[in-house]
Amino acid sequence: MAKWPKRGADVEVSKNAAKEVCEAVEHILLDIERRGDAAVRELAVMFDEVDRDD
Q1: Within 10 Å of residue 42's Cβ, how many Cβ atoms?
Q2: Residue-range definition of the domain harbouring residue 29
């Protein structure tokens, strides 16, 4: 009999995680649409730790 050291998340958990990711991406894209470069700069600092004026 096979022993599994780890099991994947069940379908419901995966669906919820995918939904949360989609909502986060939608929010980011709307923010970029509204605020343009300022939003992109903030995201670069948040995700890449890069802070540039241009």
Answers
A1: 14
A2: 20-48
Kindly state whether residue 29 falls inside one of the protein's structural domains.
yes
Instruction: State the Cα angle at 24 between 7 and 44, rounded to 5°.
Output: 110
pTM of the model: 0.69
Q: Is residue 2 part of a domain?
A: no
- Asked if residues 40 and 54 have their Cβ atoms less than 8 Å apart, the reply is no
CA-based max dimension of the chain = 60
Query: One digit per residue, pLDDT tens: the chain, 54 residues?
Result: 778 787 777 888 888 989 999 999 999 999 999 999 999 999 999 999 988 877
In a domain, 12, yes or no: no
